[in-house]
Amino acid sequence: MEDKKRNQAYNKYVQAKIPKTRAWPTLFNSFWIGGLICVLGQGINDLLLLWFPNISEQTAWALTLVTLIFLASFLTGIGVYDKIGKFAGGGSIVPITGFSNSITSPAIEFKHEGIVYGICVKMFTIAGPVIVFGVIASMLVGLIYLFV
Fold first, then answer.
1. What are the helix (H) ranges across the chain?
2. How far apart are CA 116 and CA 133, in angstroms?
């Protein structure tokens, strides 16, 4: 019986401490920021196809993804993407820019521990070894394919 009272008191304490969110503004911000990131990607792709008419659509999309990943990493590095993420929530996490942020953030946070033990190890810990290893392996296979 005492455990039940203790659990009820704890649950009441937790409910009092949980920050209240306003669902509709959060959903709206997530929607329009995520949409804005997608519009930016489409704009970059369209400009690449306009400026370089000889490249294929597949190449233009690859360059668009690289550009978005770079921009997100850069904005993470200067501390802007975290503010966007706090404002937009899932709208900034779902696009490829969120993936870029999830790799860049721990690398920046643990850089004081050195390149190997800080940046590389923590990047693998946070972002997920399968995803990072897959990207690195695909780059190596691509380089082998290019030169062989």
1. 2-17, 23-51, 57-77, 80-88, 90-93, 96-109, 121-127, 129-147
2. 15
Task: List Cβ neighbours of 57 (8 Å cut-off, separation of 6 or more).
Answer: 49
The pTM of this model reads 0.65
Cα separation, 101 vs 81, in Å, equals 8
CA-to-CA dists, residue 73 to 38, 86, 124, angstroms: 16, 16, 16
pLDDT per position as a tens digit, 89-130 = 777 777 788 877 777 777 777 766 666 666 666 665 666 665
How far is residue 94's CA from residue 99's CA, in Å, rounded to a whole number? 8
The closest of 96, 118, 87 to 44, measured between CA atoms, is 96
CB 99 within 8 A of CB 66: no
